[in-house]
Amino acid sequence: MNAVWASGLRKRYKKRVAVDDVSFSVTRGEVLGLLGPNGAGKTTVIKMMLGLVRPDAGEVMLLGRPVTDPKARAKVGYLPELFRYQPWLTAREVVDLHVRLASADVPEKDRREALGLVGLGERTGDRVGGFSKGMQQRLGLAVALVARPEFVVLDEPTSALDPVGRADVRDIVLSLKERGVAVLLNSHLIGEVERVCDRVVILDRGRVAASGTLEELLGSSEVRLRLEKVTPEAEARLAQAGPVSHDGDVVVVALTEPGGDLVPDLVADLVGLGVRVHSVEPGRISLEDRLLDILGSVR
Prior knowledge:
It is built from 10 helices and 14 strands. It is of the alpha/beta class. The chain has 2 domains: about 1-215, 3-Layer(aba) Sandwich (Rossmann fold); about 220-285, Alpha-Beta Plaits, CATH 3.30.70.100.
């Protein structure tokens, strides 16, 4: 079942079209990555999806209800890119305030667990005004998760976090996925998206430039081999596995049919042909390279 279904979203601000015919869905237990350059329309799409901005055209269903129904947003957790909490409140009071604003029934135990989950378990009584940007980001994440939402929207959740904090967010996103929670992740840190997302939607100039699973977007895998004593017969065997190129003393094979036994069989055959295999390094094009390729092709 889809947690979110959006079709034909369009939004114009005066003469500028910010979003044009954007459609996507997020199923329960899925992490969808939203990528694109600044000004691509990502935040506008998120705001329309959450009912914060009214689209000029298109439709959104949120957890089985029209987004215009306030009940549709009752089970949604949202961490906006830009937010600010009252500096005189403690972390505990911020969470309590947002629970009251949401009219949510959240036991005291769950409120403490939300703060502990983001690494603020020992800072619940500290005033927000003394928090670093990273600690405020963690608090915002606790606010988004405290009511145990069924759909979570994270807009640049790791923007102010150090590597440890980014790893914590990654673990939290994966734990949400295991619980069947749908997650939409908007992040400029493409490596984080590649680690946790099941599918990706790439926006450019308000339109969907590409979408699909990581496997669909990144294409075939490759293998890099450092070889010695490569005979013509070995060259022919390499070519059977896929297009061959050379990077210095490394042979790069773009595998046309990736499979579990393909690389071991290739190496075994090469050894049988008298080739000395010094190293085998699997890999594939990175999401960052693919993103730049897609954006370059649509401009």
